[in-house]
Structure formats: structure tokens, C-alpha cells
Amino acid sequence: MVQQQPATQPEDSTRNENAPVILSIENMSVEYKTPSGWMQAVRNVTMDIRAGDAVALIGESGSGKSTLGFALLRMLPRTARISSGTAIYRDRNGKTYDLTEIDDKTFRRMRWREFSMVFQAAQNSLNPVLKVSDTFLETGRAHGMRSRHEIRQKALKLLQMVQLDPDRVYNSFPHELSGGMRQRVSIALALLLDPQLIILDEPTTALDIITQRAIIDVVKNLRDEFDFTMIFISHDLSLAAELADRVATMYAGEVVEYCNVRETFYNPHHPYTVGLLNAVPPIAGTDFTPLTAIPGATPNLLHIPSGCAFHPRCPYATDICVQEDPPLVLLEGTRNHLVACHHHDEVTKDPEVWEKMEVTAEAQTQAIG
Amino acid sequence: MAVAASTDKVVIHHPERPAIWKSLAGFSQNFLVRRLFRAFLTIFFVTTLIFFLVRLLPGSPIEVYINQQMTQYGYSYDQASNQARALFAIDTNQPLVIQYFNYLGHLAQGDMGMSIQSPGTSVGSIIASRLPWTLFSVGLGLLIGFAVGVGLGMVMAYKRGTWIDSALTSIASLTHSIPNYILALLVIVIFGVRLGWIPFTDMRGSLSSGVHPGWTFRFFADALYHASLPIAVYVLTQVGGWMLLMKSSTISALEEDYVTAARARGISEFRVAVLYVGRNAILPLFTQLTIAIGFVVGGSLLIEPIFVYEGIGAELFKAIQGRDYTLLQGIFLMITTCVVLANLAADLLYSRLDPRIRTGGS
Q1: Could you tell me how many CB contacts below 8 A there are between chain A and chain B?
Q2: pLDDT reported for residue B76
Q3: Is A144 in CB contact (< 8 Å) with chain B?
Q4: CATH 3.40.50.300 domain range(s) in chain A
Q5: Are residues B34 and B169 in the same domain?
Q6: What is the DSSP letter of B178?
Q7: Residues B90 and B136 both lie in one domain
């Protein structure tokens, strides 16, 4: 049975400030080939991830968050390519690799030992003709675990930790398990080789609300036990609030704000982050202000607006926003709150700002689309 | 919580029922037993259908014989019909229903009767001497065609969009669309007669004279030599279909999340191709395979006479021309049985391959 943990705000959300950087992404851009040209899905993303961090990549559909995750693990479809940038990865021995450069063979050996992944719709990420045990054995053997017994022991322990009945699940076929159970199996599988970094791509998306809760608890407990670094990709702000130490907000392929989770929710400085927060019920407190949607729609990535990509939907937009793309800079007076906005010091959480600009924004978006 | 949702079977006890009842009920629910029963029913219905259908063919064996005697030897109708009556031990004037039950009664004892055209020869012995050759050639053709098609189909899927894919797709579509009897004729006319590359007259029959069945290399080599042309035709006309099916099936398997996930886990590309892509892509082809088995055995009817291969197809061809009712019944019964058993085997294999249907089945 799942043990219910009280949902607390992580008190130590800045605990990793001095930990070594294990993944340093610089200027990474990813494009997809489409019939009408290369589509920029990820644009000049620069971010550091420290050992032990839980980083949430949040944003609307099409903001490039999953593409970034897939690019890091070289899981991009054949129509996509990394057009620029580096991703320097540091393993536990301090050896560094550029994930965009190293050869496939080395990369294959690093997979799952160094970094693993839990997939979106993990219900389908298990081969239907293989038993759970075969999947564990295959994975272990692909990375030099020779002993069947050793793999089994490790797998049973992990299945136990994700709150499953280990013996029964280990000998089951995927179709004999429920969606939530399969998701737990995927999480257990991700930990088989003690990776340093785990990427979770929308880990709770296809699950009902109760199961989501259980999965969140499982991930929390596992982090306490194994101390892995985690990047999780989600559009669900409450999930970010539950699990993340740091939150990177993405818009139109760019990171527009990257800061500690408390800052994201209590002191956001990018209009888009504010817009996202205003669009969902408040996570804490009893202040139920009416929800406000961000006017307009996400831009067509084939025709990204000039300057700041968010300017057609932004109530603070001025001429400079149309002309210049604001760089991601450190917010004055903070240690690690990065924001990319020309008007970041004017941004407030007041929803009235948005209500006033709705009409013009829609007109602008349509003009672009 | 989700953990509590057990998928274990719910066992319902009926304490008042006697033990024999329970074991019988369990027996009838057994996958294999149900399938065997269904197979038996199919064979029975086809047998019945064939019995009446062959008698609906225009003309009767006696008329065919009489016509033959009249045209070949210049006998009068009366002479020929007297001869026919003396020769044929069947009475076609008996009511059909009586004939049918007689036939069933004999059949139940394993007796398929005597051939009408070749008096004194039992249908069983004709089939026993001919059927193995057809099963050998057709089975091997099907197997090679399937294996090659599946392999090339995967290559096409992996190389999709390249010239290899386009070339193979064109070849597959072309060979797939040629009927097998046309291809058989083309092989003889072009490679046998025009170019003279294939000694097709020498390859007639199912064995060279002087070679006898046995566990010798000479026998197997010779059998293969004589069967090679029919097998080649079976392979060529089928391989295209398998290639195209496997290609589309593989492409959709490649898109599956579990394939991406396996790659992310660092499983070698070869193992991903075999165990994740191939293993799943081949599943829908098995249903097609069961259908193909029937078509190919039927196809031997046209191919074997063309190559003068002495299998059941050639025999069937003769039996139809001579309206040899008993032989026709026997051959159709055997073909039906083979096809039904092959289907059964494919079904059982499928349920081994796909764990999801192992316990279902209805």
C-alpha cells in the first residue's frame, strides 16, 4: 500500500547550491525538419543542473520541453537535429563528456548507468511480449550485469520500493498490470543501474488523480533513498511544486525563467510564468482569485515573433520587446534567479494587468499567425 | 490504492456439482480442446459440402468414361456404356442421402473408398503417395517466402525513404501482382524454352528414376531439385506480399514507445530489432499466414500440372477432369484437414508468441 506523505513544500529547496554541476547545457538549439523548413523547437537553451537537484521543465505544449529532454538523451526522432550547443555531463568520478559529441558506442554504454528516463505514457513503454522480469534482465545484461540472480534481487527490491507486490509483478506481462502499476515498474526500471540523472517525461500525465498522487510519493521516497538528480518535464505546475527544487519555465523553445521553486511561485519575474500561475488555481493559501488565461496562442515555431517571442501576448510589451530578444540574466539581489525579460522589474502577479490587454494581444497574435 | 487491484482470476466454487462435471467443464474450457473441437467441426462441414458439390459438377465419371471410349476407340454408346458398367463398381442411381451416409460410415473407419477412374486403387493409397510431395513443396515455399519476406520487409522499414526501400517496394509490388500460374508459364517459356537455362523437362516428376525415398542425401537433393521450380514460383508470388505487410507492420512497431524506451535503456540495436521491433511486428502477419496456407495448397492445383510435378494438385486436376467423385472427396478432405491443422498450429503458435491472447481466445 502506498504510504501517504504529507505534501510539504520542500524546506531545503536551495540545499544543492554548492553541489557540483553535473549537466551544463550551453546554447543548445534543436530543429525539426518540416515540409516548410526547419522548425526551431529549442532555441539557445543554457542551463546548469547541479548534483541532487530536481529540476522541473514547465511550459505549454510545443514549448520545447520534451524536445530538450530527448535531445539530451539522443532520443530525438530522425527528423530532428541538434543545430548548435553543447551539453557537458560530469559522471560520478568527475570525468566530463560532451553529450552532443561522444560516439554512439560510448553513449550506449552510458545510457541507464549514467542517465535513465521514465517516459510519457509509460504504460506503453514496456514491450507487450516480454515479462517484466525479461525487461529487467535485458536491461541489466545490456550493461554487463551477468548474474540473473543479482538482477532479480535488485529488481525485487526496487519493485518493493515503488509499492508493488514484487514477486507477482516481476513475473507478470505488462497487460496484466494497471496503468499506474506499469508506471511504477518504469520508475523501478529507471533505477536498476543506479543512474546519476533521471529524466521523467510527464510521468503522471496519463494517470488518474489518485494514482498521480501515489506516483509523486513514490518518486519523493526514492529520491530520499537514492539521491539521484532529476529533470522532469511537465505542464503540471502542482507537480512542479511537489517535486522540484528548481523550475525552468520554457516558452517557444527558450528558457524564460529559471529559479528555485519558491521563487517561481511566490516571486515570479517573467510575465509568462505569472500568466501560467494565474491560469491555474492557487497551490497554497485560500486566496481564490478568478483564473485568467493568457490571451492568444503559442506561436507557430516556423514563424517565431521577433524580439521576445512572448511579446504579442504580453501586457508589458513595448518597442524594445519587438526588436530585441532579452537575454537570460541574473535577477539583481538574488543568487540564482534567472529571468529573460526587458521589464522584469515591473512584473506583478496582479491579474488586472492581463485583463486590460486582452483585445490587443489577440489582434497581434492573429496578425502573426 | 492501485496496488490492491489484483488481476488474479476469480475462482468460483460450485460445491454441489459432482467432480466429473467440474473436470468436464474445465476440459471444455481448455484452449486446445476448444480449438480441436472447432477444427473437427470445420472438417466435417467441408466434407459434407464437398460430397454434394462434386456431384453437382456437370457430367458424371461414367459419362466422361463413355465419351472417352466413344471418341478414342470408336465404340458405340451402348458398347461403351456396357463396358463402363462392368468397370465401375459404383451405383450412381442410389439415393444421394444413402450414398452420403455410406460414405460417412466408411470414412469413420478410415476408408475413403476406391478411385472411380483407376479401379482397384484406393483413394487412400493415391493420396498417401502424392500428398507428401505437395506438402513438402508448398510448405517449403511458404516458409521460405515468409522468412525472406519478413527479413526484407524489416530491411525496407529500417531503410524507409532510401533507394533500397523504393527498389524493394517496386519489386515486391510487381511480383505480388503476378498470378502464380502466369509466373509458372513465364518461367517455362522464358527460362526453359527461349533461354534454355532451366532443364524443365528433366525436372518433371517428383523424383528422378532410380532414386528411392530414404534418409539419404541423394534422395533429399533430388527431391529438392524436382520441387525447385514449384517452390520458386510459390516463393516469388508470395514474398512480395509478406515484404509489404512486414514493412508497414515494422514501421508502426518502430514508432512504439517501448522501442524508444528500449533504445534509451541502451539495449543493443540488434536486440531491439529482433526482440522489440520484429517480435511485435510479426504478430499481425501470423493471421495472414493462416489464410495463406489455404491459398497456397489450392494454388498447387494450377502450378503442379504446369511443371508436371506429381503432387496432390496435379492429381486433383486429373480427378476433376475425370469426375472421379471418390478421389475428389478424398483429396479435398485431406487438403481441408491439412489447412485446418496448419491453421490450428498457427493459432497455437500465435498464442505462444502473443501473451495477451494466451488466456482469452473466444
Answers
A1: 98
A2: 78
A3: no
A4: 21-244
A5: no
A6: S
A7: no
> How close does chain A come to B261, measured CA to CA in Å?
6
Q: For the structural domain made of A21-244, what CATH number should be given? A: 3.40.50.300
Contact by Cβ (8 Å): A46, A255: yes
Q: Round the average pLDDT of chain B to a whole number and report it.
A: 81
Tell me the one-letter amino acid at A340. A
CB contacts, 8 Å: B4 with chain A? 1
pLDDT of B59 over the 50 cut: yes
Q: Cell for B280?
A: 511485435
Segment B33-49 mean pLDDT: 88
Q: Among all residues of chain B, which has the CA nearest to that of A185?
A: B3
pLDDT of residue A369: 38
d(CA A264, CA A273) in angstroms, rounded, equals 7
Locus of grid cell 492573429: A366
| pLDDT tens readout for residues B80-90 | 777 776 666 55
Q: Which phi-psi region, left, alpha or beta, contains residue B238 (left: φ > 0; alpha: ψ -120 to 50)?
A: alpha
How far is the CA of A276 from the CAs of A162, A357, A358, B25, B73, in angstroms? 31, 16, 15, 61, 100
Partner-chain contact B266 A130, CB within 8 Å: no
Q: Are A85 and A45 a contacting pair, CB within 8 Å? A: yes
Strands of the A96-98 sheet, one edge to the other: A37-50, A21-34, A80-90, A96-98
Cell of A271: 510575465
Instruction: Render pLDDT for B144-201 as a digit per residue (tens, 0 to 9).
Output: 999 999 999 999 999 988 999 999 999 999 988 888 888 888 888 888 777 877 777 7
Range of the domain at B64: 19-108
Tell me the per-residue pLDDT of A262-294, one tens digit each, with 9 for 90 and over: 888 888 899 999 888 888 777 666 666 777 778
Number of independent structural domains in chain B: 2
Q: How many residues belong to chain B?
A: 362
**Nearest beta carbon to residue B266 from set A128, A143, A214:** A143
Residue A203 has pLDDT above 80, yes or no: yes
A87 in Cβ contact with A24 (< 8 Å): yes
> Kind of pairing, strands A254-260 and A246-251?
antiparallel
Q: Residue A242 above 70 pLDDT?
A: yes
Q: How do A329-330 and A254-260 pair as beta strands?
A: unpaired
- Restricting to A residues 161-180, those with a Cβ less than 8 Å away from any Cβ of B are 163-165, 172-173, 175-178, 180
Domain end (from B108, B137, B152): B108
